[in-house]
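Sample 1 of the test manifest.
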Amino acid sequence: MALNILVVDDSSVMRSIIIKTLKMTELPLGDIWEAQNGEEGLHLLQEKWIDLALVDIHMPVMDGEEMIRQLRKNNQYENLPVIVVSSESDPNKIEMMLKQGATFVHKPFKPEILKEVIIDVTGVSDEDKD
Amino acid sequence: MVYTVGVADLKISGDVMDVLITYALGSCLGVTVYDFRRKRAGLLHCMMPDSGIDRTKAAGNPFLYVDTGMKVMLEDFYRNGSRKNDLIIRVAGGASAKQNEDEDFFQIGRRNFVSLRKYLWDEGLMLKAYDVGGYGSRTVTMEVENGKMLIKSKGTLKEL
Amino acid sequence: MKTKIKKALEAASVNTFEDVCFMYQVPELKNSHKNLKLEAASAVRYRGDYTGMLLIETRGNLFSAIASNILSTESPGLRQKKDALGEIANIICGNVVTSLGRGKLGYKIESPKALNKDDLLKKTGHEKPVAEITLNFNEGRADIKFFIDGYSVPAREKKID
């Protein structure tokens, strides 16, 4: 299964880092979509088939917390795998994300960590190599 | 046959009977590359992070430095038909020179690991596994037949 | 608390430069980097139980090297350089604010802003950072400062110390 992935981050540089990392993982990738904030992310979710969302927390217009809250309200995205990729270090906020069914990757991250978490939450693998 | 890889040295083999071994990795890195399709294995033992500090030395022995050593090793794999997707890259070593890392002024082991990560990032390659840092030396063996990488450290043996 | 913030600032900065920019500290360059000229600066404001700012200034050739390393490109454009420095500031700030204590509100981190020299003077002219560190790299120097609004006011200073 090729994964269609949504990357939501207000920093173009961070989106580039994440997308380059995704390509380096050698996991089966489909389309990668980019959004600059939660609102754009929700629009893309309605328009495209997305298998996994990588979402920053601190963003203008609509932050990641609000985006996740809204998408969990919609039955269609109830079980969508969401990975929060953020420099947030407040345990309360992280706990809230986990309660919403998201997984957390702390910025700065090593590429291998992001790969591990993606495998963990989506079940895809690079088993060809093992 | 068992081949010993010395300090600032590289060995690559495509003979499934071969085992590559390097001893006493402290702050140095032992980087292994394995092409699982062609059953070829390489083991690089490099000492310093960046050839930029002495290009002449690097030209004399590229395996002294992480960047030039990796370049030579990967180019050999590509010349022999390897594709990026076929390569499994792992690393061990990069230990601190002091038990308390804060007292290790130069932090060569840490610098070596960062330099390796930069090289791989620029090449679009990812590490499969790493066992780096800490204090103490490591011995690394690499079996060409199956790509098994073993690390011996402080009397324990583990597979990476 | 000051010590805690400084430790958090140092750890976050070193880790961010290592993991995102693939740059390692070279403390032995401290003397030769002493008089390097200011190249660029970026600031990130945070809001929560405390409000304030993280400021990063680059000297030498660091401004370009950060973007170059992150994006694996030899000559990044000005926009890319500003974005890359801003993102570094953003990540460091997000990691440091937790050292201010677990507040009820949590912290909002605003988008980073590139500063020119006039902005820099305006922003920091009357304020004193609660913590600051300098990191020396082969490519230049980074001075990273963490401010809490009103910290230079004596009453606040007492509370923070």
